[in-house]
Amino acid sequence: MSIPSLEREREWLLLAQHQRDTQAFGQLVGLHQGRVRAVLRKLTRGQQALADELAQETFIKAWQALPTFRHGAQWSTWLHRIAYLEFLQHQRRWADEHANTAPPDHEAVAAMHSTHDLRLDLEKALAQVHPLENAAIVYCYYGGLSHAEAAQVLDLPLGTLKSHVLRGRAKLQSLLAAWKPKDTQDSP
Amino acid sequence: MNKTPAVTTDPSDWLTPLLVQDAHRDPVPQQDATFVAQVLTRLDVQPADHIKLPMPKVYNFWTLERGLLLGFQLLVVALFIFSAPGALQAWLQLGQAPMNLTAWYDHNLWGFAIGLVMVIYGAFELLNMPEESVVI
Fold first, then answer.
1. Chain B hits for A22, Cβ within 8 Å
2. Which chain B positions have a beta carbon within 8 Å of A63's beta carbon?
3. Per-residue pLDDT tens over the stretch A4-32
4. Which residue on chain A is closest to B45 by alpha carbon?
5. Fewer CB in 10 Å around end: N or C, chain B?
6. CA of B122, closest CA in chain A: separation in Å?
């Protein structure tokens, strides 16, 4: 199926917002669910069921808040912002419920996999960087957002977002040094 | 707005291809009718009468521009209030002698008039500025 034009998307948005047209909103959900779920899967470290549940909550809250959406703002950025707040709320709930238990052990997750592949190494490396650096990298590289859009989603100034991306990348480069191609490594 | 893409192509950058490769592995399907149907079903679900759901709270995200404009507006309003007595006096003098040109050149009067225009224009801009809201 071809990607609908921006005009078509705007039309669906207007129908959903002003006429509470659920079919138009369904079209918007279909259009954006892939990115929202992909980012949430990365933020939740591959927990697909949890990510999909958070994504559903995101779209329901977007439906509730749609009358307050102003068209000067970008709809996809607004949606990602709701998804990120939903993820943070889940994190807080989880922390409250498991105050006395240890956080998920990545070694245990690793044991479930037969081979150490890139995904697993990346998951482990991303788990070791600061949560905001992690979120900045996920939105920029997995969500396909620009720095400015990611800054809006994370509610950070643009310069701070860029610093988080740079610091996160530097940490990932040292943690994933084994994945560095031989021809780009410095000669001894 | 800065639209710089986050992913750049630098030949010495070996991390970006890894991240991009990982992002494209096991992608979420771009078309998922089941997921859409689940969301739409939940939109139609009305809460049972005995269950009282909390009213959603709407949080507005104030942009930097909105904050700066509002701060400037408050400053103009404060100056406006301070200059009001002088402007009133100048206006009364003008009322007594409308043909007296020196009364027209009173800085209090013009300052007040310019301040009034700025307050009205600022309020107009504030009302038309886009804002983002989220229901929690």
1. 40, 43-44
2. 43
3. 677 888 888 888 888 888 889 999 999 99
4. A60
5. N
6. 18
Complex ipTM, two decimals? 0.76
C-beta atoms of B4 and A146 within 8 A: yes
Taking the model in full, what pTM does it have?
A: 0.62
Q: Which residue of A has its CA nearest to B38?
A: A56
Q: Is the CB of residue B53 less than 8 Å away from at least one CB of chain A? A: no
A39-55 tens-digit pLDDT: 999 899 888 899 999 99
Give the residue among A99, A179, A170 at the shortest CA–CA distance from A129.
A170
Q: Residue A105, CB half-sphere, CA atoms under 13 Å: how many?
A: 6
Read off φ and ψ for residue B60, nearest 5 degrees: -95, 135
Rg (CA), chain A: 19
The beta strands (E) that lie in chain B are given as: 58-61, 132-135
Amino acid, res. B10: D
Residue B16 near residue B9 (C-beta atoms within 8 A): yes
